Amino acid sequence: MEEKDKNEAEEDEILVKKAQESPEAYEALYKKYGKRVYNYLWYRAGRVKEVAEDLAQETFVKAYQKLPNFRLRAYSYFSYLKTIAHNTLVKYYKKPKTVSLEELGDIAEESAPDKSETKEASELLWQAIEKLPEAEKNIVLLKYREGRSVKEIAKLAQKSENAVKLVLSRARKKLAGITELKP
């Protein structure tokens, strides 16, 4: 172990012990690692500030809840936080996202052949998207609801760009009987 890592682990051990004795002392760990945890999540959450902030907060809440039983090993507290952050991020991406019809309105408006059919097309589109397998649904929503590029989606979904294009193509074919999505 390098001297810097050893010093950080020793400093963390002191901070953790203080936080276990007094909950107010946990703030020192938050101040020390808050920005690093946020940055870790920000890059992996598609550089979306609100998502990164929420996930960072959830990471620290989980770490705080586990604090009474936590025992520091030969690594820094940041390594522990990063593990929690990673698991929180994975859970975030696995969680099904719900979307209102209003959010899908833009897709329906672009794809409806006649403005008078927009509401009906929107409802049909929503029902069809809901029936897609979870992985396809998430990729379709990232592309058409959030307007993300294939490259961004590939990074978020941890897939190749070609795999994302294939998923989008298959999903569009499945949805084609109801309405056409423009890439």
UniProtKB/TrEMBL annotation:
Q: Know the name of this protein?
A: RNA polymerase sigma factor
Xref: Pfam families:
Sigma70_r2, Sigma70_r4_2
Instruction: Name all RNA polymerase sigma factor 70 region 4 type domain ranges.
Output: 123-175
Keyword rRNA-binding listed: no
What GO molecular function annotation could you give as one example from this UniProt entry?
sigma factor activity
Q: What is the lineage of its organism?
A: Bacteria, Candidatus Giovannoniibacteriota
Which species is listed as the source?
A: Candidatus Giovannonibacteria bacterium GW2011_GWB1_44_23
Q: Which family does it belong to?
A: Belongs to the sigma-70 factor family. ECF subfamily.
Could you tell me which InterPro entries the record lists for this protein? RNA_pol_sigma-70-like, RNA_pol_sigma-70_dom, RNA_pol_sigma70_ECF_CS, RNA_pol_sigma70_r2, RNA_pol_sigma70_r4_t2, RNA_pol_sigma_r2, RNA_pol_sigma_r3/r4-like, WH-like_DNA-bd_sf
